[in-house]
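Saturday, quiet lab. Running sequence design on the structure tokens for the scaffold JK sent over.
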């Protein structure tokens, strides 16, 4: 994971998404045959700057895959209690979206390869939702479990 080309994470949820759009801009500007995967969670999907990044990436047809890891909880809060619309792959509106079974490693591999090829071909960005489930807690061990239990 911590290899060349990995640009790190961010303590502000969703803030890595515009960074990913910026990397996509740089890749296109330098005419590199590459794309950027900007990954974020269901809890980060409502951040305002995520939508700003979507807009610019689509406008400039940047080679970026916006990958939403939907593990059905943001910390301990169920997605249905935080998001007015939980079909995260449709959140790009004007950006094509794909919903992937995040529990199927082969489906993830195939969809990821497709997204890589699609964005590198110059068609613009994609939004991908990987549907999975939370097996462990977030920041707070006991609070996380308690919240997950109450919200279920
Ligand atoms: C802008 C901002 N608001 C609130 C927080 C506090 N916070 C930390 S993790 C988190 C939930 C993130 O949910 P998700 O992206 O689904 O990640 P998961 O809990 O599934 O790992 C929140 C709200 C933050 N880090 N940044
Ligand atoms: Mg989550």
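Result came back. Writing it out in full:
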């Amino acid at each position: 994971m911590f290899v060349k080309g990995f640009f790190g994470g961010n303590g502000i949820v969703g803030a890595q998404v515009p960074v990913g759009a910026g990397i996509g801009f740089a890749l296109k500007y330098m005419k590199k045959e590459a794309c950027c995967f900007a990954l974020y969670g269901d809890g980060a999907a409502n951040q305002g700057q995520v939508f700003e990044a979507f807009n610019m990436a689509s406008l400039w047809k940047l080679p970026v895959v916006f990958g939403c890891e939907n593990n059905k909880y943001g910390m301990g809060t169920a997605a249905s209690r935080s998001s007015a619309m939980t079909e995260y792959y449709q959140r790009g509106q004007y950006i094509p979206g794909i919903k992937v079974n995040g529990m199927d490693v082969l489906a993830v591999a195939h969809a990821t390869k497709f997204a890589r090829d699609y964005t590198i071909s110059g068609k613009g960005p994609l939004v991908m939702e990987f549907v999975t489930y939370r097996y462990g807690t977030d920041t707070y061990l006991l609070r996380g479990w308690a919240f997950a239990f109450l919200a279920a």
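Notes for JK: The pocket of magnesium ion (ligand 2) is lined by residues 41-43, 71, 73-74 (CB under 6 Å). The first strand starts at residue 36 and ends at 41. Ask whether to fix the surface positions before the next round.
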